[in-house]
Amino acid sequence: MVKKGFPSFGITQSGAFVAALKNYNLPDFILALVAKDCNSDLLERGRIDDRLSSMNDESLELLHKVFVECEEDADGKYAQYRFFAYVSSMYHKCEVFINETIPGKSGKNHKMPIAIKNNGMYVAVGFNKSKGHAVSKKDVVKFYDVVTDVKNGEHGTQLVDAIYGSSAGFKGEAIVELEKLSKKIDPDEEFKLNFKTANFENRIYSVTKC
Fold first, then answer.
1. For 65-85, what is each residue's pLDDT tens digit?
2. Regions of the chain with pLDDT less than 50
3. What pTM did the predictor assign?
4. What is the predicted pLDDT for the residue at 2?
5. Closest Cα to residue 22, out of 48, 47, 58, 1?
6. How many angstroms separate the CA atoms of 137 and 158, rounded?
């Protein structure tokens, strides 16, 4: 569809999206996720601008909305994409898994929105509240219980970081409760478990508590 008022020469809208997006350090798995969601082709290897140019207009527009304009959507999916990119940026040369099911010591399987592996072992997991009310005390207690169950299971022996992201903020009582709970963990353990909360505000994630 040709947009009225746009000349037929010069940079196209998709070209403008590529020009903007190539300056963002978008991880491979994000490109693959968006390409899959938008039924788009994606060049497996190559320069970032070539890979972006191989994607369809729908996927480029979505990436632009999520990472350049930092828009929100009703389903909270845009916020999830940003959270996944944020978490993966902290773990270079590690494998990223989305919606990963990990069994805990209790025998229960826990679905992790994002999990990071290094040398075949889980080193970090992340949860994100993309919309609705601020994270509550009840939310962080559930988060703590799930993560410690995974940590104490056979797959969590090298788990060191658990990140709770939120685009809806955190209630003060939630931060206080998580800090209290994290003190229950023996600091002398070989792989101490670090609980972190990260708030998405003013187009950036910032760690509110470690």
1. 999 999 999 999 999 999 999
2. 1-10, 210
3. 0.87
4. 40
5. 48
6. 27
Token digits for 65? 């909305």
**Residues written for the chain:** 210
Tokens 């075949």 — which residue? Answer: 120
Which 3-state string (H, E, C) describes the chain? CCCCCCCCCCCCHHHHHHHHHCCCCCCHHHHHHHHHHCCCCCCCCCCHHHHHHCCCHHHHHHHHHHHHCCCCCCCCHHHHHHHHHHHHCCCCCCEEEEEEEEECCCCCEEEEEEEEEECCEEEEEEEEECCCCCECHHHHHHHHHHHHHHHCCCCCCCCCEEEEEECCCECHHHHHHHHHHHCCCCCCCCCCCEEEEEEEECCEEEEEEC
Residue-level pLDDT at 4: 44
